[in-house]
Amino acid sequence: MSEKRERQQLYRSESIKLLYNNAIPGIIITFIAATTLTFTFIDNGHRTWKLMWWGVLCAVLALRLVDTWSWRRCREKHRRVRAFHLRFSCGCLITAALWSSYFCLFERFFTLEEFTSTVVILSAMVGGAANVLSGSVMLASYYTLIVLMPWSLMLLDSPLDYKRSIGFLGLFFTATMIFSAIRSAKYIRQAIALKYKNQRLVDRMEDTIRERTQKIYEISYKDALTGLSNRVAFQNEADDMVYRYKRGEIPGFSLFFIDLDGFKSINDALGHDVGDRVLLSFSNRLAAFQDSGTLICRWGGDEFIYCTPQTDHAALRNLAAQMVKSFNQPFYLREQEITLSATIGIAICPEHSTNLTRLIQIADIAMYAQKGKQPERVLFYNHQLEENLRSKVLLQEALNNALARHELRLVFQPIVDSRTREIRSFEALLRWKRGTQIIDPSVFIPIAERSGQIVNIGYWVLEEACKTLAHLPAEETAISVNVSVIQFQDQQFLAKVNRLLETYHINPARLHIEVTESLFHSGQSDLTDKILWLQRQGIKISIDDFGTGYSSLSVIQNLNIDFVKIDRSFIHKIEDKGLAIVEAVMNMSHSLNFRIIAEGVESEEQAQLLRRCGIHYMQGFLFSQPVEMVDVFRLSGSRLLHPAPESVL
C-alpha cells in the first residue's frame, strides 16, 4: 500500500513539474496569438470590447507567470503541493474560456478573414495544448472542450453551409485532440513509472554500494597480503606521532625505509606466488620487532616502513643491524630455501625534518644510496646523499640536450698489432664536455642507460664512427663501437645499422661492435639472433671487459665471436696472477678461433709479456691515449713504436 501511495505521489509530482516546465512557452505563444488576433482586426467593430478582452487575457497570463515563478522559487519538496496543481489548472482553464469567449462574442461581426484566422488560431492552441498539458489528461481534455466545443456547437446552428461544416470539423477535432491528450498522458505516465522503477533500482544499488563501501573502509587500513598497515593507515598514525612530537609528548621518532634486495629476480624466476609467500614471511620477521609505540607498514611492492620512537643513533644502528641479521636468514618455503637481504635507509625527526612526507622521502634517498653496497646494509640520511641525487638528476636533464648543444664528441684510441705495432683499428670513445666541466663516462653512461637516452646517443656514436670510417685513408683500418644492451633491445637496431653501412658505403668488416658479457646474461634469445645477423653481414663482434662479469664459453663458441678483450684489471696484475688468466684465455682462443685484445697496456714490460703469450692485439697508454678525430686520419695505418702525443681530453 505504501508503494502505491508513493507511486501516486510521484505521478502527481512529475505531472506538476511537467506542467510548470512547459508553462512559459505556452504563455508566450498565447500572448503572441491573442495580440496578433486582436490588433490585426482592431478596425472592425467593437474595438473597446476587444481591447477589454485582450486586457483581461493579459492579466490572466501575468498571474500565471507569477505563479510559475513562485513554483520555480519553491524548494523541491514543496513543489508537490496540490495547491500548485489547482492554481495552474484554474489559470489554464480561464485562458481556455477567454479563447472560446472571443469567438462566441465577436463571431457575428467577423469578416471572412477574421473568421478564418480565429478558427485556425483556436485549433492551433488546442493542438499545442495536447502536448503542453500532457502532464494532466483531465486538464488537457477540459482545455480542449472549453476552447472548441462552444463555438463548434454554435456553428452547427448557422444557416451557412460552410459554417455548419466547420462546426462538424470542430467537434471531430475536439474528439481527436482529447484522444491524443489521453494517449500522450498514457506515455507520460509510463515514462514516470519507468523513472520510478529506475529510481528504486538506483536506490537499491546505492544501498548495496554503501554497504560494500563500508566493508571496504573497514579493511582499507590493512595490506591484503601481509596484514600490516597500508599507506593510508600508516600516514594517519604517523601524522599523529608528528602531532605528539610538536606537542612535546615525545622527543621525536625515526623512520626505517626497508627495501628487499633481489626480490624481483625471485618473482621472475620462481613466480609471483613464491614472491608473495616471501613477502609474507618477511613481514612476519619485521613484525617481530614491533613493540609499544612502533608502526610497521607495507609501503608498496617489496618496500616497508618501520617507525620507532627512538632517536639515538647507536640504538637505531643496533636495531637496524639486528633486522638485517634476521632478514639474512634463509626463508624456507615448501622445502625451498630462499636467501635474500634488505637495505635500510634511516631518517630521524627532528634531526632531519619534522615533515612526515619529507622524512619518508629522505629515508628512501638513504636506502637508494646504499642499495647494492657491501657489506653495510644500513645508512643514515645526510645532506650529501641528496646533493648527489640532485646532481644525477641535473646531469640527466643536461644530457637530454647534450647532443643538440654539440657537447658530445668522439675520441679514438688505437688498437695495435702486438708484433708490428701497426694500428689495425681504433676504439671510439664517447666524451662529454659541459661548459668547462668534463663529465667522466663512468658517471654519465649509467645515467644515460637508466634514462633510456643511451639509445639516441648510441646511434649518434655509430653514425659518427661510420662517417669517420668513410674518410679513413687506410681502407683496412677498422673502428670498434661500444653498444649498450639497451640499444641492442631496440627493435630498429639492425635496420639502422644496415642503413648507416649503405649510406656511408662502408665495408661491414671495418665496423667492429663491442658488447659486454652482461648482454648474454640478459637471457633474451633475440639479442643473440641480432648478433648472428650482424655477423652474417660481415660485421665483427667483440666481447669487452672479458672475465669481469658473466662468462659463457658456450655462447662464445656458438656465436663464433671474433674478438675478446681482456679487461685491464688482469693486465695490471699480469706480473702476478693476471698472467695465468691471460694464458688461459689465449689457450681458449686457439680452440674457439677468436682473436685476443689486451686492454690497458701501460708499460713496455707488460707489452713484452703479452707478446710472448701470443696476444694478437694491444691497446693502452703505452701506445697512445685517445686522440681527436683529426689525429685518426694522421695515425691510420702507421706504426706506434713510441707513445703518440697526448690529446687534450
From TrEMBL:
Residue span, GGDEF domain: 251-383
Annotated CDD domains: EAL, GGDEF
Pfam families registered for this protein in UniProt: EAL, GGDEF
Transmembrane segments: 20-42, 48-66, 86-103, 140-160, 166-185
SUPFAM superfamilies named among the record's database cross-references: EAL domain-like (SSF141868), Nucleotide cyclase (SSF55073)
Domain EAL: 392-640
InterPro entries: Biofilm_reg_signaling, EAL_dom, EAL_sf, GGDEF_dom, Nucleotide_cyclase, Rev_trsase/Diguanyl_cyclase
Keywords: Membrane, Transmembrane, Transmembrane helix
UniProt name for this protein: GGDEF-domain containing protein
Organism: Siccibacter turicensis
